[in-house]
Amino acid sequence: MEGATSNRASLGFRAIAEIEVLSKCEMALRLRDVKVYRSDPSTDPMENADETGEFKRNLERSPLRFSFQDGVVEELCPAEGETTWALNIKRGLLTAVQNSMDSLDRDQSVFEYRVPSEIQSLPFMKSTHECEQELDKNGLLKSALIRETHTFRPFSRATSGATTKVLQKLNYKTRISGVTTRQDDCSSSFSSAEETSLLHTTSTPGE
C-alpha cells in the first residue's frame, strides 16, 4: 500500500530469452535458465521463490511461436497446454522487442495506445506503460527498459494507494546460428492452432 506503509513485497525473475527465426515473418521465443526470487519485510535480501521448480518448468517447457510484421508482433501461437500465467509473462517479454518507428536513423518518441490486459481495461484500475529501447546502427535491439504502474483506484488517494510497479530489463547478449525449435513444433500457417495476441488474459485460449 504505497504511501501508507514502508512494507512492500517484491517478486522478480531472471532468464535467458532466445528468439529464433523460423521463416521470414515467423519466429519463436524460448526461455531457459529461469530463476525466480522474492522478498518481503521478513526476507531481505531476495530469496529463491521456486522451491519446487514448477515456475521454471512451465516457462521453459514450450517455445512460443509468433508472427512478426514490420516490427510488430501480430499474432501468437502458444503450444498446447501452455498455462495462462506463463503465456502472459512471455507476452510481456515480446512487448519489449516491438518497434513501430518509421525510421531508425534518428531518435523518436512513438506513442501507441493499447490495453495490455483485460484487467487494465476495468474502470477501477489506473495503469501506465513506458518502454525505452536502444538500437545499434543496423537497427538491432541492444536493450529495452519497460516501466509499468498499476493502481487500484478504490484504495488510492493522491500519491498513496494499492500500487503494483513492474520493471523489465532486456539486454542483447549474442547471436548464434541454427534453431532448436523442432519442425513439428511449428507449421507454415497459424490457422491450425489457437491464435491469440499480446493482450494479457485471465484464461488460456480455448478454456
What's the helix and strand layout?
Layout (H helix, E strand, L loop, with lengths): L9 E12 L4 E15 L2 E6 L5 H7 L3 E6 L2 E6 L6 H12 L29 E11 L5 E17 L2 E12 L36
Antiparallel strand pairs: 1-2, 2-3, 2-4, 4-5, 6-7, 7-8
Please tag this protein with its features.
8 strands; mainly beta; 2 helices; 3-stranded antiparallel beta sheet; 207 residues; 41% strand; Lipovitellin-phosvitin complex, beta-sheet shell regions
Number of helices: 2
Uncertain segments: 188-193
Number of strands: 8
The total number of structural domains is: 1
- What is the H level of CATH, i.e. the homologous superfamily? Lipovitellin, beta-sheet shell regions, chain A
The CATH topology assignment is Lipovitellin-phosvitin complex, beta-sheet shell regions
The first-to-last residue Cα distance is: 33 Å
Main beta-sheet annotation: 5 strands, antiparallel
Q: DSSP strand (E) fraction?
A: 35-45%
